[in-house]
Recover the amino acids of this structure.
């Protein structure tokens, strides 16, 4: 069986180009960094049901382009409620994350795991899943990763 180098080269070129320019090849998640999620502004709005002011996100075009796409990102695992399978991936360790430190809400992603499991605080993981943008559900974070799977542990 002869290997067609021209076809192999073309296929590899398409994958490399798509990775460099942020296109997603079917089956290959788009790798993003935390700075890719910074294209968001927040406006104070009064919530009648809660009778409080809340910050609501207004996502920029770069972030909107990621919605519904399979992405992968690396960050620090923060178990919020392990018994209920509630975990957050953070750009920063627990001591400096959005909840405890001075980071913004764009520095965390709520994980909806495909398979329930346990994590220790501040384990560094690369995860993949489908990005959902949440602008109005107060029960979820602004960024939600659906069908999350772990790819690699770093510590």
């Amino acid at each position: 069986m002869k290997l067609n180098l021209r076809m192999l080269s073309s296929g590899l070129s398409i994958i490399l180009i798509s990775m460099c320019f942020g296109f997603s090849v079917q089956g290959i998640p788009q790798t993003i960094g935390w700075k890719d999620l910074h294209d968001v502004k927040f406006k104070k709005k009064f919530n009648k049901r809660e009778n409080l002011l809340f910050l609501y996100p207004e996502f920029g075009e770069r972030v909107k382009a990621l919605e519904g796409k399979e992405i992968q990102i690396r960050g620090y695992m923060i178990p919020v409620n392990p018994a209920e399978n509630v975990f957050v991936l953070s750009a920063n360790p627990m001591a400096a994350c959005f909840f405890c430190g001075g980071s913004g809400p764009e520095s965390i992603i709520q994980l909806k795991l495909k398979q329930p499991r346990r994590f220790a605080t501040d384990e560094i993981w690369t995860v993949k899943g489908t990005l959902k943008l949440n602008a109005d559900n107060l029960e979820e974070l602004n960024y939600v990763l659906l069908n999350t799977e772990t790819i690699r542990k770093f510590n």
About this structure: The radius of gyration is 18 Å. The CA atoms of residues 6 and 106 lie 43 Å apart. The helical segments are 5-21, 61-64. The first strand starts at residue 30 and ends at 31.
